[in-house]
Amino acid sequence: MHASEFGRLAVRLLAIYFVVEGLATVGNTIGNIYASQQLMPGADGIVRVILPLAAGALIQLLAGITLWLGADRLARRFGSVGASAAASGERWRIESFVIAAAGLVILILAGTSLVQALLSLVWRMEDVNVSASAHGPHLIAEALRMLLGAWLIRMAPRLAARLGN
């Protein structure tokens, strides 16, 4: 199996993972509708609980569909061989792809979590007992995870070349 075929297969597996996670979140969201009606009657209570969960599910589903449709292009992008690493062959391309794929997973999961936290914070700001400073560390941590994921994607070829030596 060539690196490009391996890459396409790996991206499609990631796509399936994100679609399954998104569907699981949809299931959890539907299950939480009843609970939110009991705890916070009225439409406002449902929106406060459901919107952050639904946004996370939507991001994961869209990420999965996008990954599936763009598998070939992403495999070529993540596994592209630079001139300095051309002599290393297939191994370098696979290592580069694995690093970039790990970065992509981190980026999508952190992005989903960050959007859910922001939406939850916006809806809870109306409550007297909830302050933005209570959510600050979580928001910062998710933003840093997103930066790490983006950095891994961007630096994958260089990291693979450096780690391969």
From TrEMBL:
Q: Which chain regions cross the lipid bilayer?
A: 12-34, 46-69, 97-123, 135-153
What domain of life?
Bacteria
Keyword list (alphabetical) reads: Membrane, Transmembrane, Transmembrane helix
Q: Work out whether the entry's keyword set contains Transmembrane helix.
A: yes
- Full protein name: Uncharacterized protein
